[in-house]
Design goal:
It is a single chain. This protein has 11 helices and 9 strands. With 273 residues, it is of the alpha/beta class. Strands 1, 2, 3, 4, 5, 6, 7, 8 and 9 form a 9-stranded mixed beta sheet that branches. Strand 1, helix 1 and strand 2 form a beta-alpha-beta unit. Helix 1 packs parallel to helix 2 and helix 9 packs antiparallel against helix 10.
């Protein structure tokens, strides 16, 4: 099996340079290093972010592919463009403020080698606020293809930041699309509808930076309206039933309207466990 692979990352103006630096460093310290790192600049960046990216490119010019966008398009459309620039069949997703475990890619490549029919391989994740050494909670996901597809009707069967997938399978499903809050959800649904086969590894391969105000951002009626619009887009694919749609809206409304501290408890102890 060809062990060359790309990493796909999107960066936008509000990212912190120190977080981006830590994320890139975790890619460079892998037991199996990427063959290419595709960085989509989703609109104009700050001078600090541009300078940081330039410093990494200067050290290893052949490793990086930069995709500058003239304006901010949002995550889905930024990744859509970035996917088209990935040179290799295997592509690993990475967020610009998260940190990979050093053997992440080694583990995922081994999974593809063990089962060449796989189209996407994800994993569990550990969430943290300040340092990966002090994680707050863990998000587990189903492991088998059958379990993932069943789970996907209610919640995402993959942790987006943890996946490595085949570019051909993503393009066959129509690539990433604009679906704020649920760019990945729509992609998984479309991939499953087009016959994709996936699995998750029962290991914590990515440390995810959630930020101290994450639970506050996921509350309030304005957030719920965005969630409802995105969930409607998922419903229109035909993958989920009306019952799945209504029950998820009800659950999200309850969580969005509860006090922030209680919402944080629900995320840590129930939703992300």
């Amino acid at each position: 099996m060809d062990r060359n692979f790309s990493v796909l990352m999107s960066v936008y103006v509000k990212e912190k340079p120190e977080y981006l630096g830590a994320s890139l460093d975790s890619l460079l310290c892998q037991t199996v290093r990427p063959s290419e790192i595709v960085i989509v600049k989703d609109g104009p960046l700050t001078e600090e972010l541009d300078a940081l990216i330039a410093s990494y490119v200067e050290r290893e010019p052949s490793l990086y592919t930069l995709v500058p966008l003239s304006e901010n398009r949002g995550l889905g459309l930024a990744l859509r463009e970035g996917m088209l620039h990935c040179r290799y069949e295997l592509v690993a997703r990475m967020d610009s403020d998260d940190i990979c475990r050093p053997d992440r890619f080694e583990k995922q490549l081994a999974a593809f080698e063990a089962d060449p029919a796989l189209d996407v391989v994800g994993s569990y994740i550990l969430e943290f606020e300040d340092t990966p050494a002090q994680t707050i909670c863990r998000r587990t996901v189903p492991l088998s293809d059958e379990e993932i597809k069943k789970y996907q009707r209610k919640r995402d069967g993959f942790n987006h930041v943890s996946v490595m997938f085949k570019k051909s399978a993503v393009l066959k499903a129509g690539n990433y699309q604009h679906c704020p809050l649920m760019e990945d959800t729509l992609l998984w649904v479309n991939m499953f509808k087009s016959g994709a086969y996936g699995a998750n590894l029962p290991e914590d391969l990515v440390y995810v930076r959630i930020g101290k105000n994450m639970y506050e951002r996921r509350g309030g009626y304005a957030y719920y309206k965005k969630y409802k619009a995105a969930r409607k887009q998922i419903r229109e694919t035909g993958y989920i039933t009306w019952f799945d749609y209504i029950s998820s809206l009800f659950a999200q409304f309850v969580v969005a309207m509860m006090p922030n501290k209680l919402r944080g408890f629900v995320f840590k102890k129930i939703l992300h466990r």
